[in-house]
Each structure stands twice: as C-alpha cells, then as structure tokens.
Fold Glycoside hydrolase family 65 protein.
Amino acid sequence: MKGFDPHRERMYESLLTLADGRLGTRGSPLVGDRATTPGVFLSGCYEGEGPATELARLPPWSRLAGAADIRPYRRTLDLRAGILYEDGPLTSLRFSSLARPGTVVMRVYADPALLPPGGAMTVPGPVTTALRDHRLGPVFERFGAYDPDPRVAEAAAVTAEEVGFDRLLHEHREAWARRWREAEVVVDGDPDLQRTIRLTLFHLMASVGEQGEAAVGARGLTGSAYRGHVFWDSDVFVLPFLAATHPAAARAMLEYRVRRLPAARAEAIRRGRAGARFPWESALSGGDVTPTSARLPTGEVIRVRTGEWEEHIVADVAWAAACYLDWTGDADFAAGAGRELMVETARYWASRVRRDRAGRVHIDTVTGPDEYHEPVDDNAYTNVMARWNLRRAAALPGVADEERTTWRAIAAALVDGYDPRTGVYEQFTGFFGLEPIVIAELAARPVAADLLLGTKRIKQTQVLKQPDVLMLHHLVPDQVAPGSLPVNLDFYEPRTAHGSSLSPAIHAALLARGGRFEPALEWLRVATRIDLDDLTGTTAGGLHLATMGGLWQALAFGFAGVRATHRCLVVDPRLPPRWNALEFGLRYRGVPFRLRVEPRGVEIDSDALRLRRTGGRWEVTSP
Ligand code: IFM
C-alpha cells in the first residue's frame, strides 16, 4: 500500500490486519489522524448486551504519540511471515506472534525526537493490555500482551521482553512457515489469482485460533462490522478450509458451538421444541444477538427478522461437525461432543416440522439463505439440510430405535420442492408464481437488488440475493437429485443478484463442477476482488471472511473436486484449459500431504495414504 489515501485508508487497514488467531490488529499507521480507524480485537471478547453486544475494541499497541502530519510513505504486509512494515519518517516492523498468540512486538527506527521514551504501561479493562517499551537512540522496541487475566497479560509481556525481539521474530517466522506448508495452494497458470489466493489464505489462517473455543465473527479479527457476531459464515464457509488443513482450529470453532449447546437447548424449550436451536447471530453467551432493525443506505429503516426465521443455521452447525469428522476421523469428537451436536440438532428438526393430512412433512415460516424473501414455507435449502441432519443423526450408533425410526420417517416425508419433470427445485412454496425477473438481464452484477427494486417489490420477484437451492448442490450434493446441477444452475444463476459477498465464490465452485469455465472464472475473479476493490463498500468494517473461505472451497471443492466422505477423500477435478495444475496442502485423517491436480491426472506425495483411480475419479484412503 503506497502513500496515504484518507478515503481508502480504512479499507487498507482491514486488508493489512495482523492477527495470530487470538488477537487481531488493524494495519493502521503508527501515527494517524481521523481518517484512520485503529482496532485491536481479542477473539471472543465482547461487550454490551443483547443485539448491541459487540466485539470489544481494545487499546492499540501499534500507535505512537507523534506529530499529526507524520504519514507513512508505504505499508507492506509480508504474507509469508505475517509482518507489517511501514516506511516513512518512522520506519518500523511489527507482528502479532503466531507462536505466542496474544503477544505483540514492534520495532521502530526514527529520529529520537519522534520516539516516545521507554517504560511500562498497563491498561486495565475486560482485557488487560500490558506494554513494555525500550528506547535506545533511534531504535524503539515495544513488547505487549493482551489477556482477560491481568496477571497473564503482565507475565506474557515480561516474558516477551526477556525473550527479546530477535528470537520472537524467529519463532514467529517459523510458525508462519509451518502454517504455509500445511495449507499452501498453487494455481499454476494464473499468477493474478495466485497472489489474491495468498492474501485469502493468510487471513483465513490468521483469524482462527486453536486453543479452547474460537468465536469467528463475520469479519474475523479484522474489523467490527456485524459487531463481530458469529453467523453460518463461520460453520459453512470458514470451517471447511481449517478442517482440511489445520483441524485443531476447526475443532476450536466447533467447541464454540458445543459450549453453547445449553443456550441452544434453552431456546428450543422456550419455543416449545426439543433438542437445540442455535441462534442466527451469536456472541459470548450463545443467546440470540441478531438486531431487530437496520437502516438501509437509502435511509429506510427495516425490521430484521432473521433472528426469528433464519433457522437453517441449526443444520449448518451439524454440517460443520460432519465436515470436520469426515476430514479428521476424530473418534473422541464423534463419540462425544460431535454426536451431541448431531443428535440435538436432529431432535430440534423432528420437533419443528408439521405433518399435513396427506402425511407430507413441512417446515413453515423460515428465511432461507436468500434473505430477499421472508418468511417462506418449505424453503428447499432448509428442508433438505434438515433432512440430511435427521438422516446423518439416525445413522449414528447407539441412537434409540424409536427415535431413529421417527427421524427416518420425517426425513422421507419432508417436501423439498423438486419437480421431476423439469429437474428444478422450487426455492420455496410459491416461488415459481412470482414475477419472473431475470436480474442478469436487468443490471450489472453483483448488485444490491433489494435497493435497486425496493424491499417490498423484491419479495414479489424471482430475484435471489445468494445461492439457496444451489447451496445444496454445493454442500450436500448426495442429497439432491442426481444430474440436477445443470438445470438448477440454468434457472437460478441468472436470477441471482449476488447481493451477498457469500455468493460469487459458491457460484464459481458450482459452475466449475458443471464444466462452465468462463463464468466460473469470472465469478471467482469477482470473489477475489470483494475486498481488494471494496466491491460492497463495506471493507472498512473488516474483511469478508466467508468470501475467503468460499474462495478456497471454489478451488478445492469446485475445480479440484475434493470431497471428504466418511469412507475416503474423493478427487474429481475440472481444470480450466488455461491452468497447468492446481496444488493444495491438505491433511486427511491426521496425515498431512500435498495434492497435485493436472490435466493428465492426480498425484499425492504421501506414502501413508493410498491413491487409486476408480472410474473417472480418484480416491484417497487412509489405511
Ligand atoms: O451470513 C450472511 C448472510 O448469508 C447474508 N448477509 C450477511 C451475513 C453475514 O455475512
């Protein structure tokens, strides 16, 4: 990032964020003015109540008191090593230690007159900030630590000071080198995409810790948009990348859900249901923190009902647990907390459905992923995910016969909107009767079609915000009618406004599965530019982590056709002619390996895994 552009500064601060899985620090300049929004966030540390609950903003460690007109000439983020360099009257490098999450280190070179004196400072609060400064002529060093426990913060800052700058830097570089070895993706034949994918992977890796529980908000640790609340973004978009590369972090994300099972159970009871109902937006307590109103850019204030109706999150949490299990085979999780997640969510659906006189089962009054239409009955995404949830739980060993039989019967009778004559799923009851506007013919996409057409009008049309039926083809391809992807792509893609940043990457994945490389690459490109070009105008509030997870999924699940099942890892590639190869760092059933996909075939570099070709695809198995 060259120079200082006050209009785009906040966007750059998001892009230049340094995080270590636990602590995130926006890449603000050492000295800044009102155009800057410094921010330091500790994962899971919220303040406030109810919908106003937000990720606490902590005192910044990478700011120096100085003359207001000192501006950086350039800031450079080294993605390999997780180091932010700043050049200017103050020249510096800083990092948030991946080897010691929560510890931060900075060294500044400058005219001594511009540097603060040495000393120690402790800022109390819900999180204690402990800083220890040293100045030797033109060199200034700061060691800091953040922790809810003041003693831990103090001790970590003292230890960092004792360990010293050079060793801290060395171990931090080593830690990042290990992470890159685990997860590096190579797109051989597309240097532009390669660069943007590196940025994506960097932020995905930096945003999620592996100790205890990881509450991953919509913008990770890069900003305060959506108040740091946790959505399905975390379970469905971010978690798969970690399950496949660094499972300890995926397990920590699931631990966040496991520890909120009591709150989810209480919510189910409050609604007269069984099992566990996870909230659409959550923070610390596990209670629902979804706001009840919002102001649109047009000034219009609308009621927000997603907290009441967007219930697919219940099945999304179960899907995340299954995804982690299929990649890792973690037996303890399968027998313990994972099983509880699966069973309690299935129980919720069994108590949530309605059976009609003809014996068909329905789920009424929900919001699907396409939030332009709500509430609706029998949303295909919600129903099919609930069906999958019931079946997966029914297949678990030790489930009582009566419950298993009930779940299977409900699953078999759940309507899903599939029309066998056309092969198209109806997104919800009545969708096909709406005004058949094809948004692709009306506007350049991505477009906020609810603003374009108005929030009332959009409900009367077939315009979608983001994939809904198609999300099923992406997440649970075995649960939709075989061969139904092409017709559903033909029908739904041109009707999708991509009004959510979650949308383009998933379409790229599906278009790749369908062998439609030109549009697949175009939507992939759009997904890579969401934050780099600030396509939604909201990057100042933090990076779109779900888009980033979706990008990895587009490459891994879409183009490379990698899919973990309970039995093996399937690899069924669709490589665009202009790419020479795709390569991934992955970990399957505890074995790290590299997967290389080329037009002539597939290779892995591990003797601990078996690769064999069956039909037109490959299977990786662990002995
Ligand atoms: O979870 C998403 C949702 O799918 C679309 N609106 C924004 C949310 C947070 O990213």
In short: The first helix runs from residue 9 to 15.
